[in-house]
Structure formats: C-alpha cells, structure tokens
Design goal:
The complex is a heterotetramer, with two copies of chain A and two copies of chain B.
Chain A lengths: L1 H7 L2 H10 L3 H8 L9 H7 L10 H27 L14 H9 L12 E3 L5 H7 L3 H8 L23 E3 L6 H15 L6 E6 L6 H13 L3 E7 L2 E2 L2 E2 L10 H5 L5 E5 L3 H16 L5 E6 L33 H8 L3 H11 L5 H23 L26
Parallel strand pairs in A: 1-2, 1-3, 3-4, 4-8, 7-8
Antiparallel strand pairs in A: 5-6
Helix pairs in contact in A: 2-5, 3-13, 5-6, 5-7, 5-14, 5-15, 6-7, 6-12, 8-15, 9-10
Chain B lengths: L1 E4 H15 L4 E4 L5 E4 L2 E5 H5 L4 E3 L4 H13 L4 E5 L8 H8 L2 H4 L8 E7 L7 H4 L5 H6 L4 E3 L4 H13 L4 E6 L6 E4 L12 E4 L4 E5 L4 H13 L4 E5 L2 E3 L3 H11 L1 E9 L4 H12 L4 E7 L8 H7 L3 H12 L1
Parallel strand pairs in B: 2-5, 2-6, 6-7, 7-9, 8-9, 12-13, 12-15, 15-16
Antiparallel strand pairs in B: 1-10, 3-4, 8-14, 11-13
Helix pairs in contact in B: 1-8, 3-4, 9-13, 10-11
The chains are: A alpha/beta, B alpha/beta.
Bound molecules: thiamine diphosphate (2 copies) and magnesium ion (2 copies).
C-alpha cells in the first residue's frame, strides 16, 4: 500500500507530483524498477483489427491525443482542488489511467448533429472521461460537479448524473446495472425510426454480475440492435477483484456466448480502442447487430475521492480501509502505470511522425491552460437557488414544499 | 361513438398516436396488442406497424421497462404493457431512472413513455401472486412519475392520449378486473387530463373516494344509498399522482364524512393518503377506510371472496358513517 | 390446428379418448402416419452417461415407470373432470408429455428423511409432475387443487403454490424467474451447514430470458454450490417458441458459458433423465458444484386448462387464440406424441425383461384406481372457512379484517 | 453496557446469533460485516465464521435477497445487508416470495430471514439516487413481511435479536444517517419487540410521530418546545408493519393534535398512515405532516438542505398546530 498512501494519497506527495507534471505518476512507478514493454503481445494480436487508426488524418490523431490529455488534466486538477482548495466541493469517481478507452471509442462515434442522428452514449458512476471524450463542455461540467446553478445540469445532478444530449451524451448513472438495458432500449428506438445511430454503453467489470447484463446482451442479440457494450475492465469493482464476481478471465467470453462478436483490447492504447470501436460502429450502422468490446484497463486512484480527503481514509485517493475481501496490491498499480495511456499515445504519434516531442509538450501546455480556465470559470459561478429544487420533477410546474408541514 | 372495452379504447389511442408518430414503439410480452369490438376494425398493432416497432420479448419485464425508458431518452416516444406477474421486476428502473432523470439532469432528460401496468383482476382461485392488487402505492410514492388508474373505457382512452403526448413518464394502471366493462367511446382522439379527479355522483351526506377497480362497487353502493335517500358524492381519483386533493377536500368540507374504498391492502393504501390530506385540511369530519386486509389473497374462493371488498361492504360502512 | 381443436380440445373427442385409454393420444397421432424411431441418434449419444439406469434394481425401475403413470393419469383425470364435472374447480398447467423429466430426475434424489438431509426441489407454475415425482401425497394435492380446507396447503395456494417440505418439495412458484435464485440460496445454506443435500430447480425454456437465469448460474458457479438446474425445454413459453427469446438451439450452451457442466438429454426417456441427474447429484454431493440439464420435451395440452373450458378458447386444452406471434403446428404435436414417455419407459422395461406386457397393464390399472381414489377423496373434503384467509400471514396471529370499513 | 454505534450494536446481535446457530449465514456486497467500538473486540463476521457462511457477491442485490430467502426456505436462518443503491432490484422477491410464501403454502413455508436494507443518509451532494429516502412505504404496503426501522443503537440491537429469532421475514431498515449515533448498549443479548412503538417523551399538548432518521429532529424540536412550556408526546414508531396504532391513537385522543415527521416523500409516507388510522378513531383532532417534498433530492447542497426536513421545521409546525 505504501505507494498510494505515502505518495499520491498524501498531500505532500500529491503536490510534488502536481508541481512537476502529469508524468510524475510514471516517474514514481518507474522508481520501483518495474518495467513492461509498451504493448504486450496479447494486446498486439487484438490490435490487428481493420480500419487501422493509421489511416486517419493527422488532425484526427492529434485530437485523440488531446482528448486523453484533457481527461487526464481534468482528473489531476480536480484531485488537486480536493486536497488544496477549501471552497471546492466536487467529488469524483476518478478515471485517470482509463482515458484511452473513452478517447478511442468516442473518436469512432458521431458526436455532433441533431439528436436523431448523433450517436448516443450511456455512461456510469465514473462518467467524466466519457463526457469529455463525447464532447461535453468542460467548463459547464466543472461547474456542475461543483453544484453551480449554471452548471451543465443546473446543479441538480453533479458528477454521477452528468447529461448533455446536445453532444449525444445521454448521461451518467449512479446505479450499476441499468445502463446497458437503457442503451439497448435506445438502440431499439433507433432502429425503429430507421436512423443509423448507434447506442453505446460504457460499463465496468462490475456490470458483469448484474442481472441486467444478461437482459441487455440477450435482447440486443435477439433483436439485432445497433448497440455496443464497451466494458472497461479495470479489474476491480469497488472493493473486490472481478474474479470474485465473474468466472471468466476475459469477460468478452460471456458476450460471445450470446453470439455477439466480442473483442478484447488493450485499453491503454487509444488506437486499439478506436479500431475495435470503428469495427463495431460499422457493424451496427450496417444493420448487423451488437458488438462487445472488453478493454483491459486500470484506474490509478481509488474508487472515489472527495474534498477534505485524508490519505489512508475512505474517500481519499489511496488505500481503502473497507477493502476487506480484496484490494489492489501496490505492485499491480505500479505495473499498470508503466503502460500509461498518455505516454502510449504520445509515443505512437511521435513514432508515426504525426507529432514531435516539442509539439506534444505544447499541446499539453495548451490543454492544461484550458482545464485551469474551466475550473476557474466554474468557481465563479453562482450557487443554486434553494427553492429551485422543486423544479424539473415534471416537465411543467413545481413540486409543493412539504418540509414545513 | 362506438361501444368499446377498456382495452379496445386504449389500443385505439395507441394506434392513433403510432400512426401520427412513426418513431413510436410498443413492447409487449404476453398480451399482444390486439383488440376488437363490434362495428370497428380489429386493431393489431403488431401487424399494422411491424416488428421493428412492435415487438414481444422473453420473460424479462425489467428489460421491457428499461428499454422503453431508454427509447424515451433517445428521443422516441414508447410504451410497454407489463403483465402483472412481472411488475416487481420493473421497480428499480421506475424508481431510480424513469422518475428521477429529468430532475437529476436539470431538465435535460425527457422520458415521454407510458408504462401500462396490468394489475390482476383479483380473480378468485389464483392466490397470492395472481390475485393481488398491491403495487399502486409503491408507484404513487415514487417521484417524477405520473400514476393514473382510469376506471372507464372513456377515461382510459382519453388518458392514454394524454399520457402518450405527455413529456413525463406515466404509469398507466390497468385493473384487469375492468376487462368486461363496455361503454360508448368516441372514435376520434381526445384527451382526459392526467391531474384531475372526477365527481361521479353529487351529494352532501357522505363522500366516497375510490379509483380503478374500486369504482364499480362504490357506484353500486352509492346507487343503493341514494335509493334510500342519502346524498352521496362519489369521487373517482383517476390519478394517484399528482393526486387532485382539491376535489375531495372540497367535497368533505361539505359532507363531513369520508369513506375511502381500495381493493389494495389496507396499510398505506391510496385511501390513507386521501384521508391524511383531508384531515390536514378539514376540521371535524369523520373517516373510514375499506380495503383488502393486510394479507395475501388466498386461493380458496371461499376465503378470497370474503376478504375482497364488495358493494355490500361499501353500503354498510357508508350507512354506519352517516348514521 | 385440426387435431387439437377437433379431437383433444373438444368434449366429444376428449371423452372418446378417455373411455379408451391414455394411449388414445398416440393412436390419433399414429393415424396421421407420422412415425419416428423411439430414440433418436442424438439422444442416444447423450444417453451414454455413467451410472446407467440399467444397474438399478427391478423395483426401482418399476417405480420410475409407476411415477410416469401416476403423473399421466393425474393429468388425464383432471382434464376429464374439468370437462365433465360441474362441481370441479381446479385448474392445471398440464404436463402430460413431460412426465419422464420429473420422474427420472426425482428418482435420483433423496426423497425422504429429515428436512436437513432430504434433497430440495423448487418447481414452477407447472408443478404437479414434479410434486408427484418427489413424493407428494396425491390425495392431498388433489384436494389442494380443488381449494379444499384439508388440502396439502389448506386451500391457500392451489396448483401454482403446492408445497410439501416433508418430502423436500419446497414448492411451486407462479412467477417465472425467481425459482433458480431461491434454489441457489438453498444450496448456499446447505453448503454452509455442511449437509450433503442438493437443491434442484425445475424450470422451463422461458426461464432462460429472465434476469434471474444469469444471477442463479453465475453465483452457483462462483460459489461452487450443490445446485442442479433442470431446464425442461418444451419449446414454448406460453405463446412463443423459445427461439423468440433465446439465441441458442441448446440452452445448455448458455450454462456451459459459465463453466457449468451441462448435458442435453432426451426428456422423453426417463432413464436418460435419471442418468444425467444421477451424475449431477454425485457431482453436487462430492462438493464439485452445480450442473445443468436440458431435457428436450413437449407438452401435449395447451399452456393451461380450467373447468368450463370450451374447445378453441383460451383456457381450453387446444388451440390458443392469443398465440399470435407463434403457435404450435399440428405436425409438431403429432410428431412428439410418437415419442410418448409412457411408451418409451414401458418398452424399455419390457426390453430389459423387467416387466412383461401383462404386468405393465396391471400396473397401469392399479395406478388408475389410485388416481381415481385420490380425486374422489378430494371431492369429499370440506371447503375453506372464509375467515381463515386472515391466518398464516405471520407465524402467529391473524390479520385484521379491513373489508368492512 | 458499552457505548456503541448503531452498526456495532447490530453486528453484536448478529454475531451472537451466528455463534448460537452454526447454520446461519450472512450475505453482503459492499459493506463488510465489520465494526469496532472502544472497549469491545472488533467484530468481523467474515473472518470469524468463514466464507462458507459469510460471503460477498457481485453487484446483484436480487440474488442476495433471493438467496437468503431460499436459505430460509431450506430451513436455515439467514440475513443480508443490501446497499441502498440496489434496493429496487430486490422488490419482486420480497413482494411475491418472502411476504407471501407462508400464506400461499397454508403455513408450510417459513422464512426466518432478516433483510437489512440500508437507506441513504440523505447526505447532501449526491442527488436523486444516492440521497433519497423512499422505499419505506413500498415495504410497509407489502404483506407478510415485518418492516422495522429502529432509531437508536439500543433498539437496533434488541430488534435485530428479535428479528433473527422471528420465524417471519423482517425488513430491517438502516437509515445510514444514524451512523454516528452512539449510546450505551448492553453487551448481552436482549430483545426489543417487533410490534411496539415507543413513547420517547410524554406530554398533553401535541403528539409528534416519527421514526428512524426523523427521530433526531423530532426530539430536538420537542426539547425546544418543552423549554417553552409545551407538553409534547414524541412517539417513535419503530415498526412500520405491523404498525402499533394503539400507542399513537391513545396519545392523540389525549392531545388532539398530531404532527407526523417523515424524511421520505410526502405522498403516502408513513405519516399518512398514522394520520389516517388516527382520523378513523379520534374525533376532533387537528393534523399536520412534515415530509420531504414529492421531488427527487437535488445534488446541490443549497437546494437539498432547504428541502430536507429539519428540527426548525418541526418546531415551527408544532407551534402552529398548538396554535
Ligand atoms: C445497483 C448498485 N449496487 C451497488 C452500487 C455501489 N457501487 C457503485 S460503483 C460500484 C462498483 C462498480 O464497479 P465497476 O462496474 O467495475 O466500475 P468501476 O467503478 O470499476 O469503474 C458499486 C458496487 C451501485 N452504484 N449500484
Ligand atoms: C415474471 C413473470 N412473467 C410472466 C409470467 C406469465 N407466465 C406464466 S407461465 C409463462 C411461460 C413459461 O414458459 P416456460 O418457462 O417455458 O415454462 P412452460 O410453461 O413451458 O412449462 C409465462 C410467461 C409469469 N408467471 N411470471
Ligand atoms: Mg471496475
Ligand atoms: Mg416451456
């Protein structure tokens, strides 16, 4: 546990990282002497999917890298504010480490246009990466996460209920299970109205054990729906390793049992997630039914974090005292940090001659400024008007105040 | 204007809305969307609109309710018909999604969806799971969903039009005991509002408040009471949420006697809410509730029919309250 | 539809059958000229399971045949009463045609002893075959189905809620879905108390699509529970062929996906169902976890029948007007009737030299008399006392009458 | 006698019962059965009883509730702790199985099972799904299940012993907002009955009826009212089903004023039942209800804290009612 508790988890360790750069993560992991090749052999094999990301324009490729950076710096900045800004109130289910799944998958989707043409994303309790990748305005999201009246959702929902139909981000969901069922329903409606949209659900390994998993996959398969299930297998659902709730090493096996084409991809490599998603989207738009993508990935922080966190306590970013049955070994965290999605994307683009190191650095500086500006804007937004809590129960009218008797 | 059953009237509304909106879908499990009535064409939504829009599923009511909710979120109107056996499985989706998403997204999500919830007809012989009438309260306590329970074919059709046109999710309770009820219903679309009770008879001695499957016994008892000279005001709630309090509160302010009639279990039946709202607003009135006892319905017809509220019970209780 | 409507479905046709014998079923099917070999090749293959029924004592083999006959004559007698006895009130989810599944599987179970040693069976809305095979007293069951105070369950439950813990028949369930979840819970408790009992769920092909299917199998597999799922695939769930709700030809495939050993057996052959169950029971008792058995079978009558039935109407035994999406072709019914479980069991026992034709006939006469006596006893039992409906809500006390205001 | 939290007190009861009955099992998902308190040993059911008896599962609350119900049917006592997020998924099993099987089998089935249902602490910031308090009514309307909601560590322990020893299925609501409440609790087993309300303060001017998470604000308001000289009778329902009507009816017969306090949504909150039962039995009393409005809890602390009932609301409403 040393690593999480003593370094990232502590104020001091955290600030030290922060004052240097995002790649502070890796430096620390590197110090431990663990070293893995960038792309493992297994992952290589699955990377041989059609629609190579290599065919994309430079612009698009850089955009995917930018998305990863935006998510990463949003994470880092928010974590910093939690530990340092006494006025900050937002909490987060951190997704640092998992950025390449959201970024690659959403890059293969249609992210603008009218609501009956844009692709629709259903997300989870860990939504900010998906939201950013789908195109949600970061300023508005930051304000929402800090409960501001002018936030994306007026301060009604905050992190677990971010929603922005204008970019096809149907929304986050604090419940584990229902998401894929809702998404298959959207896919059913899409097909009925003869649109070529696709409905995508992002979910964790925890969703495998829910009763909804069976319902969603079975009906998607039977009805041949334009539905894509992106399962972010970050190995843990809250306090338990996925082997406690799933008999498969690859959860994709479970999807294949329904006759649904399924791929296992390296979730740390944005070009692999893109390739797999591109294939799935083509399948869906052609009317050839659902797909399942299992992205092996990892989150660097703990399940959840909130302001006022203290290292080593529930809600802090490090070791979780409720993790009785199973918890994350330090070596595992370090090993995964060796395969950081930011570094993989950057190295690949440099390797492909799309960017040079200086350009990558400049891009990151630019992104960082954007993120800072978003949080700064959010911090100036007005708080909510108490009585407005009675609005939006139905499309019209207000609920009656009953707390006064 | 043609004589129609509850189900024919409802499907006529659904058919009209589906013709007007080619994106609208219908999901069913056991009860195919088919109805007929003398003098009118047979309605068969499945053959008319095809299986891309009208589909049956396996025994998975959770998926049905989740799927139409997702359809709504995707921008399409949708409806489903849930057999009473499966209602319990739909609860999470209604509680945490259908009812809350508009609010949780600050008004961004809209779920223009209708959930037809079949309630058993409380037929004797089928015991605890197949003769119960019990989920009305669970739905009405949830927020963000409109829960209606029409008691006549006319209301059923008009409320179905209103429900399908509403941007809010609507739980549309179908008490299967009303299956045989026929009445003249206009052939054209019309709306009955989703927030108004109906005064079925006027009178100043006693107010009887009921809804759905309780209306028939309430009206029968009222007729007998009126024949004896009592002034009976029978109110059909029609809507459990948002309950139209003004109508029954004004009535009890006049009659000072309130009898509620529910076919559902006594504890926390809709009548409890009616009495509580009235008691908060009217002084000096007297109250009584009729309901199914807090026990599962037994299979034996002898036991069950003794426990199920009937017109005699309403008549006798009203008399005692007046007397 | 001709067959069902005109023959079995009609009063006249029905009585004609009745006045001859149970095998009237087959004679009619035979007239259609459809003829299949008794045991198909595919079924043969799966019959090669260890623990051959051949090793059983003659007595035990005859008992299995007797169980089939008892179920069949219970079905036939009840159907007759529905059509002919104006005082009879019981309804039934008929299982004629499916007898060999219940008979074979239950013959491999422990059906007597204390409640913490007897094997436990969870059944469905179609329970009478399982109940009889597990050892429920037929008289008491007949009385219960006719809502009598002295019935098995005092008239509180009737057909869909038959329950008799004294023989390990935990009970029927009118809901499709929950059964296997309840049974895995029982299996969990069994293992916790270190008993060698097994918990068995009998369910239809309709159970595949329920969310519970996934929950039950996944948890049974993860926890290695002594649980056996017997899926009676009679091809239809109420108004739909199972292909409307399941992408597999063999539903057993779905169980194998969890890593659960699964067999497909000929459900018309009681010795095959016995063999498969014997193997599964051995596995469970040895602590080696769950098993899944898919028995291909067929019901002769419609989904459900009740007194006052008229041929061709819902609730009659023939064609079902609500069967819009899919219904049973006449040829299919006839073909399955060629492979009648009664005949298969009888022919096998004669072939094995366990019985001769005369002895088989005598056994059937005996069974028929027993069934007649059970119905006759039931018909004389008292009706329930209305006020007793308020009992048994909790272990003690009575509910308060609220219907009077 | 040691100072204990709600959870320590409860797990102490569970531990004692599991020691006494080697067949008893416990199934959890997120919240490991671990608790500690100064001066007493740490309780960890998982390590003490092993994973054959105490197990965590995947995110499948339906299975958890179904599994303990099945364990009960198989003859073993069992309990589970359901996190509030998953309660909606458990509904079918409670409605159609746990609550009805004894009756449907004519008394043959017994389900000696306890379902600990965590309710949110209504913590500000977490919005509709994670700050709600809403399923109490749904449980209390069901039949055949005892639904209790202890408000103190003492009651929680005693009711847990009683619940585990009861042959009836018990929904044991844990309002997570009481997490920090400490009080002196005996170390030995004892029972608090599953059918009795508790009179927390006596007085003759007004009756305040609340339960669970509403008790703290009710008691605080009562203290302030008493300081002003008003006679306040505060009743802690403790049990939603079978509700102990006599205690509050007798009280209101004396005070003629009833204020109910619920943290759950207004429509059909437990207070509605309390008022309805009283109004059927007491003439000439005056009534008022405090509850959460019929709206999902918003994330924004400004909106949420304004909507959530607090001691000031109770104090002011009681004063207005006293007049
Ligand atoms: C129905 C339900 N039960 C429990 C929870 C509590 N919960 C929140 S997140 C979580 C773990 C989810 O794990 P996974 O799906 O792997 O996603 P990850 O957190 O790893 O992104 C749990 C159990 C919930 N939100 N919903
Ligand atoms: C949850 C639920 N939904 C719907 C029903 C209505 N229903 C009763 S039996 C049945 C079909 C069951 O089919 P199957 O499982 O194949 O069993 P079979 O009737 O063929 O024996 C259905 C849908 C139910 N009992 N429970
Ligand atoms: Mg995970
Ligand atoms: Mg079937």
């Amino acid at each position: 546990m040393g690593y999480e508790r003593d370094d990232i988890g502590s104020d001091a360790g955290f600030r030290a990282l922060n004052t240097t750069s995002r790649r502070g993560f890796l430096r620390i992991a590197g110090l431990a002497g663990v070293s893995l090749s960038l792309v493992s052999a297994a992952a290589q094999a699955e990377a041989e999917i059609g629609f190579w990301a290599k065919d994309l324009s430079n612009e698009k490729l850089v955009d995917m890298f930018r998305t990863i950076l935006r998510i990463r710096w949003h994470e880092r900045t928010m974590a910093d504010k939690m530990l340092s800004d006494p006025d900050y109130r937002g909490y987060n289910h951190f997704c640092a480490g998992q950025e390449a799944v959201a970024a690659g998958c959403c890059a293969a989707l249609r992210n603008s246009g009218p609501y009956d043409q844009i692709d629709l994303v259903f997300s989870t309790h860990r939504p900010t990466g998906h939201a950013i990748a789908k195109g949600v305005d970061m300023k508005l999201m930051c304000a929402e996460n800090d409960f501001r009246a002018t936030g994306l959702n007026g301060g009604y929902g905050a992190e677990m209920h971010l929603s922005d139909p204008s970019v096809g981000f149907v929304g986050a969901d604090g419940m584990v299970g229902p998401g894929p069922v809702l998404a298959t329903g959207a896919a059913f409606a899409i097909r009925a109205r003869e649109s070529d949209q696709v409905a995508v659900f992002f979910g964790g390994d925890g969703t495998y054990a829910t009763p909804h998993f069976h319902s969603a996959l079975n009906n998607a398969r039977l009805l041949g729906l334009p539905f894509i299930y992106v399962l972010e297998n970050n190995l843990y659902h809250q306090y338990a390793h996925y082997s406690f709730s799933c008999p498969h090493t690859d959860i994709a096996e479970a999807a294949r049992a329904y006759g649904i084409p399924a791929r296992v991809v390296d979730g740390q490599d944005v070009f692999q997630t893109y390739n797999a998603m591109h294939e799935a989207v083509d399948r869906a738009r052609a009317g050839n039914g659902p797909s399942f993508i299992e992205a092996k990935t990892y989150r660097y922080y703990n399940h959840w974090g909130a302001p006022g966190a203290t290292a080593g306590e529930l809600g802090a970013f490090g070791y979780d005292p409720l993790a009785i049955s199973s918890f994350r070994p330090e070596r595992e965290v370090r090993a995964w940090m060796q395969r950081d999605p930011v570094n993989i994307a950057r190295a690949t683009l440099i390797n492909w001659g799309v960017l040079d190191a200086g350009q990558a650095e400049a891009l990151e500086t630019e992104v960082r400024a954007e993120v800072d500006a978003a949080f700064a804007w959010a911090a100036e937004q007005p708080l909510c008007n108490p009585e407005d809590g009675l609005m939006h129960v139905y499309a019209e009218g207000r609920a009656i105040a009953r707390q006064f008797g | 204007m043609t004589e129609k059953s509850w189900m024919y009237a409802v499907l006529e509304a659904v058919q009209a809305e589906m013709r007007a909106d080619p994106a609208m879908t219908w999901i069913f499990e056991l009860t195919p969307p088919v109805a007929s009535t003398p003098g009118r064409p047979v309605i068969n939504l499945e053959t008319e609109f095809g299986r891309k829009r009208v589909v049956n599923t396996g025994i998975d009511e959770m998926w049905m309710v989740g799927a139409v909710t997702g359809a709504g979120l995707s921008g399409s109107r949708a409806a489903t018909y849930i057999p009473y056996q499966g209602i319990g499985m739909t609860f999470q989706m209604l509680q945490n999604h259908a009812g809350k998403l508009r609010h949780m997204t600050g008004g961004k999500a809209s779920i223009p969806v209708v959930y037809v919830m079949e309630f058993t007809g409380q037929t004797p012989g089928f015991a605890g799971q197949h003769s119960d009438y019990e989920m009305d309260t669970a739905f009405a306590h949830l927020v963000g969903i409109r829960t209606v329970v029409p008691s006549t074919p006319y209301d059923a059709k008009g409320m179905m039009h209103a429900a399908l046109r509403s941007p809010d999710p609507v739980v549309f309770i179908y008490p299967a005991g009303l299956r045989m009820l026929m009445e003249d219903v206009p052939d054209e679309p019309y709306e009955v509002p989703l927030d108004k009770a109906a005064v079925r008879t006027e009178g100043s001695d006693i107010t009887i408040v009921s809804s759905g499957p309780g209306m028939q016994i309430s009206l029968e008892a009222a007729q007998r009471l009126q024949a004896e000279g009592a002034g009976v005001e029978v109110i059909d709630l029609r809507v459990l949420k948002e309950m139209d309090s003004a109508t029954f509160i004004n009535s009890v302010a006049k009659t000072k006697r309130l009898l509620t009639v529910d076919m559902s279990y006594y504890t926390l039946c809709p009548g409890a809410e009616v009495i509580a709202r009235t008691a908060e607003n009217v002084d000096g009135a007297r109250y009584k509730r009729i309901a199914f006892p807090d026990a599962p319905p037994p299979a034996s017809p002898e036991m069950f029919l003794w426990m199920r509220p009937d017109a005699n019970h309403v008549f006798d209780a009203a008399r005692r309250l007046i007397g």
